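B., you asked whether I could sanity-check this one before it goes into the benchmark set. Here's the sequence:
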Amino acid sequence: MMGSSILFPRKILTEVEKYIDDSGIILLVGARQVGKTSILYLLIERLKKKGVPDSNIYYFDLEEMTLLDIFNSGVKEFTAYLKAIGADANERNYIFIDEIQYMENPTNFLKLLADHYKNLKLIVSGSSTLEIRKKFKDSLAGRKVIFEVYPLDFYEFLVFKKEKKRLCDALAKSDIRHVSPGTGIEEIPARFFAEDLSRYFNEYAVFGGYPAVAMESVHNKKVTYLSDIYNSYVKKDIKDIMRVDNITAFNNLLKTLALQTGNLVNITELCNTVKIARETVERYLFLLENTFIIKMLSPFSSNPRKEISKMSKVYFIDTGLRNIIIKNPDNIDERIDRGVLIENSVFCNMLKNLSSLEAIHFWRTLAKNEVDFVTVKGNRPMPLEVKCTAFKSAKVPSGIRHFRKVYEPAKSFVLTRDFFGRNDKTIFMPFWLC
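And here's what the prediction gave me:
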């Protein structure tokens, strides 16, 4: 791992822990270097604090070829190896397997272990969703629970920056998930830390939320780490695993998408720009989304005759990676794409904080009324617009007004640079409270 070896807690840890004593397999998936291994280590630490002895906890990294050979030899060989290193088959043992995608047939291996060795609790991680999908068959249905691990959200970013607890606590009590139309500004403690939170959010927007990058304070080292993450992704996930031969075309498409962040994706235009076939563009987009680089955001629509219902918008799951792709790690105030970058950063933070029952979309009508984001829980939509311009009064943007007229949401948000306010059920807050 790059950077510090200090293990900081992640929000997802609490959710994963709920399943640690169940019989099913826990599967963590996500891009390389987002912290999956650290989460495994943190789970091990918490098991030990609960009194589980070292002799009942085993961690295996399948990037080690010797271990991979043992795993690929089958369940019988693996259980014999467990016994040889001291595991008692009559006791509850916690088996942590890192980089499961390297196995030749992980599905059959895990199924046999889960079905016939009930004392083994399996917690596994994998870096490539596509490789895992290809190797994990439906026979594991009902035997596993999957968690997607993303780069840090803004709150976690502050924790990894070793920021004072009061700043983190103020943010946690003030974000859009804790504010209603009846909330007064005096109930938002984060306003007292506006300068610090704004400065940190600007850094978060430029460099993203990869843990090693967040913990680094030197600008050039941040750039180096991000470049290494990107180059490793292209080599290992795209070239070696996904067998993409035309790396130049792939990189050109990725750069084009980075420059079109927040825009509708037009496949025909992409084909003409990058000069590759439509089916190739569609395959590359599929690869990018399933290796946790981009997110194709679908529209929110209940009236296809008046609203866009098919075309998606593109956002990057990490803005630091996006900025490395376009070779622009400049500070936020020096950028012409500041608005796009803030919008993408808001999206990143919202995506990482969605519950399993929520979805995020955008909204646009054929008459060009639009809202940047719409979160939906059940049948209840909540619109949110990002505005980087200065506000002096709580004037509701036209897109929010039109959306409210059609859908009558309980509340809506306008995220601004530094303005707090309210206009009926529309709440105005700085975007670092997303």
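One thing to flag: The first helix runs from residue 11 to 17. Otherwise nothing jumped out at me.
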